[in-house]
Structures are given as C-alpha cells and as structure tokens.
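Narrative of activities, Objective 1.

The group set out to show that a structural description can be obtained from nothing but a protein's sequence at a throughput compatible with the screening campaign. Below is one input-output pair from the validation batch, recorded exactly as produced.
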Amino acid sequence: MMPRRVLLLFALACAASPSLAGQPVPKGKVVQAWHVTISPSWFDPSTAPPQITPFGMLYAIHDALVRPYPGHKMGPSLAEKWQESPDGKTYEFTLRSGLKFHNGDAVTTEDVKFSFDRYKGSGAAALHEHVEAVEIVDPRTVRFHLKEPWPDFMTFYGTTASAAGIVVPKNYIEKVGDDGFKKHPIGAGPYKFVSSTPGIEVVLEANTDYWRRMPNVRTLVMRSVPEATTRALMVKTGEADIGIALDGPDAQGLKGIPGLQIVASKHASIFWIEFARQWDAKSPWHDQRVRLAANYALNRKEINEAACLGFCPPAGVIVPRVMDYALQVEALPYDLPKAKQLLAEAGFAKGFDAGEFAAIPGFPTVADAVVNDLNAAGIRVRYRQMERAAFYANWQEKKLPGLYMVAAGNSGNAASRVEAFIYSKGTYANGGYPDIDEMFLAQAKERDAAKREATLAKIQQLTIDRAMFAPVMDLRTLNGIGPRVIKHTITDVWMSPFPSYEDMEVKD
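Output recorded for this entry:
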C-alpha cells in the first residue's frame, strides 16, 4: 500500500504516452475459446460482479484511470499521475492529454465523475460509503474527497477489486441508454467493439490510437465455449488459438503435443464451500463439528491433481495466498475417519441428507470431486447443475442451496475479500459475527499497515477456528496455447488470468 504521511506524486517515467509513429500495423487474428457464455453485461463496467472473468472483456474494450498492466500492479493508465493528500482524505487524478473514446469523443473528467456515480457493481457500497464527493477541477483534473482516511480506496478504485475506475463515455450513454450501451459498447481501451452474436462470439478490432501502444493483433474473436472438452479440441485442431480455463483431464490430453503449451495463470482466485445455513439453529450446519467434518472430508491434494494437474495449492482460508495481508496457513489435512467421528459426535453417526449442492459452473472435475468426498464422509448431497448466469444471480440474491461451492478471482487484498464475503453486511455474505464485523470496521480506518495486517490475520484465523467455510484450493487456470501464438502474455498482468491484449503477438 502507498505511504500515507506525505503527499505522493506518481509521475512514472513509463507512464508518458509513447509515440505510435513507426509501430507496425496490427495484423492477424486471435481466437479465444472462453470457458463461459459471454454475457452482454460484461460490456458495461457499472454492474461488474466480484469476479475476474468480466475483466477479460472489460480491459479489452475499456480503460481505467489506474489499472494493472505489465510491469505495474497498479499503474497510471488514463490518468498520467495521481496524488494523495497527507491526511489521506483527498485523491487527485490528472488525465493524459488527447485521450479519445472509440467514437472520437474526448475523455474528460466529466466522464470520470459520471462513471463513478453510475457504478453499482460489487464494490459500490464500500466506495460510495467512503467517498463524500467527486470534484471536477477542470477537463483533465478530478479530485475524490473521502469522508475519512480509507487505506483501501486505491485498492478498490485502481485494481480489479472493482470496476469503478473504468471510464465510460457520458454523452454516448445518455444518448443510447444502458441497454444501447450493452448492445454496442464504446470504450477507450486497446480494442474496439465490432459485433456480438449472443451466446456465440464477440468480435473486436485493434484501436490504433490506444495511448499505451498500438496493439500487435488486428482482430480478437472471443468465443463462448462452456464445454471444456470442446475448448481443448479447438486448441488441438487450430480452431482456437487460446483455450481458457481447461479442465484438468482435458489439459492433460494436450500435454506433449508439439507446438502446444499449457500455461497456468497466477491470479488471486480460490474455491471454497459456503455453509449458508450455519446461523440457523435448526440446521445441521449450525453445529461447528459438522462444518469441520466437511473440511476434513475434502481430499484437497487429489482434487488439485485431478482438476488442476498439481498447479492449484490446497487452501486453508478463503483469502488467496497471493494477496496482501493474506494469512499464510496450511489447509486442514484429509482425514476421513475424523470427519465421520465429528459427525457421530454431532449426532449423525449414519450421516445425514444435506440436500442439493450447487457449484460454480465451468469446473466439473472440482465439483464432482467435492461431491464424491462429501458423500464418502456421510454428508449426502445431490449435485445441482446450473447455468453460469443463473448461478451468479442466485448467489447474489441468496437463493442458492444451503451448501454450495463458489470461486472468486478479482484482485484486491484480504480486506476487500473480508468486505465481500465475511463481513455480515457484505454483498455475498450469508451471515456473520459481531466481533469480526467490529474488527473489520476498525481495520478499514487504520493507516498503519502492520496493525491492519494483524487485525486481518485475526479475522481470517477466526473463520478457520469457527469453520465458517471449507476452503478447497487456490485456482490457477490451465490455458491451452496454440502454435500460431508467438507471445500469449498470460501471467503478464498482475493477478489476472487473461492476456495483456495489446501486447500479444501471433503469426500472420
């Protein structure tokens, strides 16, 4: 995190807009097979959920004041510099000169304020709670005034912890409306929207005026291919150049084929099981022993090997270990006898019917393994398959079964994960505990990094002690790369499983 006691001015040498003169003209095409059905809602950052997947589209079409890109965890993008006041209550951003949206409109601070005010995604509650006002100083200067110091302002605003920092065109949206914007989005990113065939593909074309650099690849085709085996086959046959998030068995089938690569991501994603009814005194999940039994029932090592080829380390807490302030703790060991013993002590010597189990779509091997492990321990569940859009809608509306597995890959730090999933008022929290809430609110105002880390460590340890969740494993997506790709750039963007689109290179 940035120091808070002195005025900081970020004017990084690399932030100056490079001249596009003399750069090679974009050429070629890259076809990406996505692991999900691409949603038109992902064209609009205002409603982005607390997931990394939408940013695979958002950062192609749009750009933000500050964002991660190669060489920078949080680098100046549309803003050439920013500064924080000594008291931590004011942030001032200065836009680069000459910025244009894809339709030719100038990018101004009016657009910055409009985009922030319009944002209602997963981080909206926290941002709007802490930000008192957005002041337009002039067409290139904007100030954010906070009600009180908030150390996580830039974490929420300048990373994929939220999409609030992405800037969209005010005049265009007011003209076409929200629905019109989703049909034909206009952004300021490295690629322009060309067309969309719902449920099938999205076509993008290089923005040759992009501030950072002219993209190398002329055309990007994002295809929706939810079936993992099909994605792998497309990479094998050359129909797709990149297959995103392959399932373990399918990725294994591509290993050793000349010209093909399997590249594991390095983003901050993790799978865990939610015990949504643990606060209901009439539910078996109210008993901590039952929740602990589910934890011991999971053979995380075998799940990792089967679903992730050993790239996904077993998890002991729901905050990914790569995040700032994450508690570095080992996962509970697989111990089936202990799981059965705990169930017996809780009054379920013969196990019990736990009803339906839902799991985030797109990762069938993980879901099947978890279901098998729970059933083997006597926690009898029935796997309920759902479409991804329905899963997310039901998750946010708290309509999923009492037992379900989720995954979250957006950036941020331990505090942003606590805010969304552990704090009782979090958007995706099913309940909480007063002492954890009190600690969360206290650390949110703490400007001493060491003190914050200690408090966040206590919160994370309490989730373990109380068996609030059953962490499964940190996710490293397995991506298949075809022979035409010279430079895939996956892992080049901090905590992102997607390429740095403008930096990709492909054989013509």
